[in-house]
Structures are given as C-alpha cells and as structure tokens.
Write a structure and sequence with these properties.
alpha/beta
C-alpha cells in the first residue's frame, strides 16, 4: 500500500464520525420533528407553544409561507390539521418539495429570485388580503424565504431586484444587511404580509437560518415589525460603496424613503401585529446541541464554540484550525479525543469568480492550516444541503488533504485564491452531498482530534 494511501486510511474512522455527527445535527432540524414539538391538537383546541387557539372560532384556516423547509413544514401541518385547512400556497426552492393534499406548491429561484417566485409571492399576498377577522392564517417560514418571495414595490422591476440581490451577495454584505434592503424594496417583506392579512389571526412557525434568530431578519420578516429604516439601507449601500452599481430605480426608491416621500415599512406600534404569534420552532443552536450529544456518545470531549459566528470565511477557518491544533498540543479547551463544534454563517468576499460556497471554502482554508497534522479532521456543511450555487452541502478534509491534492497535481492555495473550492474537493472526491434536506438552520462546522 502506498505511504500516502496508508496514512489516509488511518483517518477513515475520524471521517466517519464527523459525518455521523453532522447527520445527527441535521436530523434535529427536521421540520416534522420541529412542528410536532411545538403544536398539539386535542379536538378543537390547538396549543401552539404556550398559546392555545380554539379552532371552532374560525371560519377558515389558510396556510401560506416561503422557504426551503416550507414544503416539509406544510406536510406535517396537513398531517395535524387535515381537512380543517381551507386552502393554501407556499413558495419553495426548486426540488424542495413534498406531496401535499390541500396546500399548493410554487417552486422558485434561490438565491436569486425569479419570475416563479414573483408569481407565488403575488399569490401569497392576494390570499392574505382576502383573509378576514374569522380567518386563521398559518405562515410557514424558513431559510430562503426572502429570495423565494419577491414582490417588488411599484416602480421596481423583478430584474432590478435580481440585480440588486446579486450585487449585495457579491460585495460580502451580511444577511442582516441584505434583508434590510430587501424589506424596503418589497410589498410583502418587513411585515407587509401581516399588514395585508390584518385583521386575521396569524400563527407564524419559523425555522431560523439567521445568526441571533432575529425575527425581523428571517425571510425578511414577512409577519414581523421592521426595525430597519430607509436610512439604514442608504448607510449599508454607502458602507460597501455600491451605489454606482445598483439600478437607478432602486436608489431612487431608497432616497424617496429617506426623504419621507413614501411610507416606511410597518413598525412595532402599528396595529397589524396585535393578532400575530411568531414562534421559532428550530434554530442553529438546537442543531449544535444535537451534534454535541452525538459526538459525546462517540467518546469525544466536546465544546460548542458558538452559534453566532460571522465574518470572513478564511479568517474564521484560521481561528478554528488554531484551536484544533491547541487541543492536540495542550489539551485545551478540551482534552483528547476532542471535538469542536460551531455554527452561524460566514461570508466569502468574491475577488475572483470560482465555484463554491462558504462551507467548502472554510474546509479548504482549514485544510491548508492543518496540513501534516495527521490526527485532525474538519467538516463543514450547510443544513439546507446547498452550499453556494453548487450541488454540495459542504466538504470534509484532514491533515493529509494537501498531500493528496499534490499527488493529483493540484494546489490547494491556488484553488482557495480563486474561490474555487467546489472543483478542488470534486477532484479529490471530498464533497459532502446530501441533496435537498428540506430544512435550513445555517451551517454546522466540526473539528475532530485524536
């Protein structure tokens, strides 16, 4: 057996454990489990979190929403409520579907919104506007819901909103910043859906894909008061120096808002939210806890760094790799065998246009930092099954990854510089491919040390 192959085989157990830990975390974010842990139906009495609703008080039950997990959420809601559901429609990412009885599915584009998304968002908006005081509206919201429900304000075209989204994604803007601008370009976001449905009763069931679980940021706050302002939008645009890149109509709209020529998004003191219950039923931290439980069951001393990690992916990777090497050297912050788990959502500032995503780039940058460390494995993947514009959820690597790549005649550093992590890991067969997971609670990063 060649030396490289022998060294590589020694890490197979660590690699298997890392994958098992990831899948345990992923299972905890299953929408069916999340729905059932927060909803209980006994005859006509529906308990949602700590609030009980008498379904006999309502003449109709409407189900609307958007997100990568919304189809799976809708399936479980149909299992619970059955024929009580009058009608419904939700927007989902292409191929993130489920077999539904009453609720319609509209498949649409993500992360760049498309015409299908606009069509579906208009349908949601119209359904909400037709609701009345005796309507109970379930709004199923999960990650991706913002891009999947594009309904631009008057004077802004879908193409202009698409271009704005592309610019914000490529400049390295955080999701909080992107959604602040999205809300101010939309009829449905920033509480617009709640405003349309008023005075109906709304129950929003939410799977969070946002650092800190800020309700007004998840899917751009369809049923949540907006705390952002047009002035905030202007400041974000200026901070990234992108005003000359954005469509003129978008800039004009934001400037009109700053000058009070058009109304702000609905705010916390508006009446539209008096009969709205927003409930987070799953988030990144719960996934990290499940991953930790699995790691501990496998015998690893485990630490959760944080579910709130943000920043440039390459920098975050260096920090994680340094901690992993510290574990090997000193047994801190956990003794061997050790497991480091973290979550959150980093960014990749694109100065070159390769193919990949933040998880694959994290693993590639980490692989460079842990080169020749024979007792470390790193895995990072998105819980939605999609990392960037690729079919991979993430990637896995170890201390021998760079040597394996050199044997194939490729340079990890060159691929990292080009932000081409997908093609790097495809060549060495270390992509993590799950297919659509029908959930989305951000990312899960795992380092194992023995």
């Amino acid at each position: 057996m060649p030396i490289q192959q022998e060294k590589y085989s020694d890490l197979l157990d660590l690699r298997k454990d890392a994958k098992d830990i990831f899948h345990a975390g992923l299972l905890s974010a299953d929408p069916a489990i999340a729905i059932n842990s927060h909803l209980t139906l006994c005859e006509n009495m529906l308990k949602v979190g700590d609030t009980t609703f008498d379904l006999a008080e309502f003449e109709e039950i409407l189900v609307i929403g958007a997100g990568k997990a919304s189809a799976a959420m809708a399936k479980e809601l149909e299992n619970i409520l059955g024929s009580r559901i009058t009608r419904g429609s939700i927007n989902v990412k292409y191929d993130h579907i489920a077999s539904l009885e009453t609720i319609e599915l509209v498949e649409a584009g993500h992360p760049i919104p498309d015409e299908n998304g606009r069509f579906g968002a208009k349908k949601l908006f119209d359904m909400a506007k037709n609701a009345h005081e005796k309507t109970l509206v379930f709004c199923l919201i999960s990650g991706g819901g913002s891009a999947l429900s594009p309904l631009p304000c008057d004077g802004i075209s879908l193409a202009e909103k698409q271009e704005t989204t592309k610019i914000l994604l490529s400049c390295g803007a955080r999701i909080h910043e992107i959604n602040t601008i999205r809300k101010h370009l939309s009829l449905i976001k920033g509480g617009g859906l709640a405003k349309a449905a008023f005075p109906a009763t709304i129950i929003s069931l939410i799977l969070s894909d946002v650092v800190g679980d800020d309700l007004d940021i998840i899917a751009s706050g369809l049923t949540v008061p907006d705390t952002g302002t047009f002035e905030d939008c202007k400041n974000i645009i200026e901070s990234y120096n992108i005003s000359l890149k954005l469509p003129k109509n978008v800039l004009d709209h934001i400037n009109k808002g700053c000058n009070c020529e058009i109304p702000e998004t609905p705010k916390p003191d508006d009446p539209y939210f008096k009969k709205v219950k927003n409930l987070i039923i799953g988030n990144n931290f719960n996934t990290l806890i499940a991953a930790r439980a699995k790691a501990e069951s496998l015998g690893y001393n485990t630490i959760i760094l944080s579910s709130l990690i943000e920043g440039e992916t390459k920098d975050i990777a260096k920090m994680h790799a340094a901690i992993a090497k510290e574990v090997l050297k000193t047994g801190n912050p956990v003794p061997l065998p050790g497991c480091i788990i973290s979550g959150g959502e980093t960014i990749v500032t694109m100065d070159h246009h390769g193919l990949g995503g933040r998880n694959q780039e994290f693993v590639l940058a980490s692989a460079i930092e842990i080169a020749k460390e024979n007792n470390i494995v790193v895995l990072s993947a998105g819980t939605d099954g999609t990392d960037g514009p690729t079919d991979a959820a993430g990637a896995i690597a170890d201390g021998n990854t760079l040597e394996k790549a050199r044997d194939l005649g490729i340079s990890a550093k060159q691929f990292l510089t080009a932000h081409d992590s997908y093609n790097f890991f495809k060549k060495i067969d270390d992509l993590i491919i799950t297919g659509p997971t029908n959930t989305n609670v951000m990312d899960l990063r795992i380092f194992l040390m023995k």
